[in-house]
Amino acid sequence: MAKLATWILLGTGLAFLGQKFVTFREKMNASREVVPVELQNCHLIEKLENGSEDIDILPSGLAFISTGLKYPGVPDFAPGETGKIFLIDLNEQVPRAQALKISGGFEEALFNPHGISTFIGKDGTVYLYVVNHPLLESTVEIFKFEEQQRSLTYLKTIKHELLKCVNDIVVVGPEQFYATRDRYFASFPLVLLEMFFDLHWTYVTFYSPSEVKLVAKGFGTANGITVSPDQRYIYVADIRDKKIYVMEKHENWDLTQLKVLQLETLVDNLIVDPTTGDIWAGCHPNLFKLMHYNPEDPPGSEVLRIQNVLADKPTVSTVYANNGSVLQGSSVAAVYNGKILIGTVFHRALYCVL
Fold first, then answer.
1. Residues flagged as binding site
2. Which residues are glycosylated (predicted)?
3. Counting beta carbons within 10 angstroms of the beta carbon of residue 2, is it exposed (0 to 12), middle (13 to 18) or buried (19 or more)?
């Protein structure tokens, strides 16, 4: 009887793990192949060969791009290089990328930029907030943009116990921002277990100099975050659950969930078109390929446009999709005056005229 019970328990455990593995593969879209959707008048941006994980475009058409992300489980084509912030002027007929110099005593040797967000002060000063992972920790760095010199001046580093494993931020006021935590555990093996057992322990934090608090929780992998043009709603991407959450922002900075948009692809960063309010999402059609990188069968790229997200039935359209032959691991897409920039976690950046 003891042996029989042991075999029953073993069989039950193996069946449980087998089902979890099937579910894990389904969540990662492991069997999905990309149906191409191409854009015309496209070219890859020179100097951006080591990722373009996040993008933020100013009203003037100047675009900031974070590059060189070193992150557990993500391919790294330039292990000896530090991260950088690049600038592109989308008003140029052939936009070129320029690495921004940083002054003010910032330790560039440990610069590992992830999500970014800009804030324009009442006097017109532009501030760039950057999620940084020095030695794989999480900080938020604040820089002032010196437009004439095409450089950044380091101002401040923000650290807090609720700002761990930070992925992305959206700035909503002077030194006020929302930030996403994309994993509960720091080490990659434990992250895999977190994903395998489908734990929902990640969250959104609100930060200000006077108050730091958790404002939304229960996400599988809270990832990209942005704000509506009228500042009333916060949009949060849950990459593992293939969802975009629409959250109402209150005067005390708390968030209340209004609706959830279920998608068929794994959503990374979100960018809102300030003119139309449309959400542009950089997505991973097959995250399994990204996590198990094979240059012979690379991860593809996908860009979605979500119109009328507050409506009962928002319009979701695929603007771009590629099997990895041109662009691998798309993470963000941003538009300006009929042009689009598509960034990636570790690969290149694509510029197209819509």
1. 53-54, 116, 167-168, 223, 268-269
2. 323
3. exposed
Report d(CA 139, CA 318) in Å as an integer.
34
Confirm whether 127 is domain-assigned.
Answer: yes
Number of Cβ within 10 Å of residue 213's Cβ equals 12
**Residues flagged as binding site for Ca(2+):** 53-54, 116, 167-168, 223, 268-269
**Active-site option among 114, 133, 284, 347:** 114
Q: Is 114 a catalytic residue?
A: yes
- φ, ψ of residue 274 to 5 degrees: the values are -65, -20
pTM for the predicted model, two decimal places: 0.94
Instruction: Please tell me the total count of domains within the chain.
Output: 1
Beta strands 202-207; 176-181: pairing state: antiparallel
| Tens digit of each residue's pLDDT (9 = 90 or more) over 296-354 | 999 999 999 999 999 999 999 999 999 999 999 999 999 999 999 999 999 999 999 99
Residue 166 lies in a domain: yes
Is 21 within a domain? no
Q: Two tokens at 125?
A: 């000063």
The answer to whether position 264 is within a domain reads yes
How far is 116 from 68, CA to CA, in rounded Å?
13
The 3 state secondary structure assigned to 208-268 is CCCCEEEEEEEECCEEEEEECCCCCEEEEEECCCCEEEEEEECCCCCEEEEEEEECCCEEE
Cα angle 350, 49, 269 (rounded to 5 degrees) comes to 55
Q: Do 199 and 236 touch, CB atoms closer than 8 A?
A: no
pLDDT tens column, 98-115: 999 999 999 999 999 999
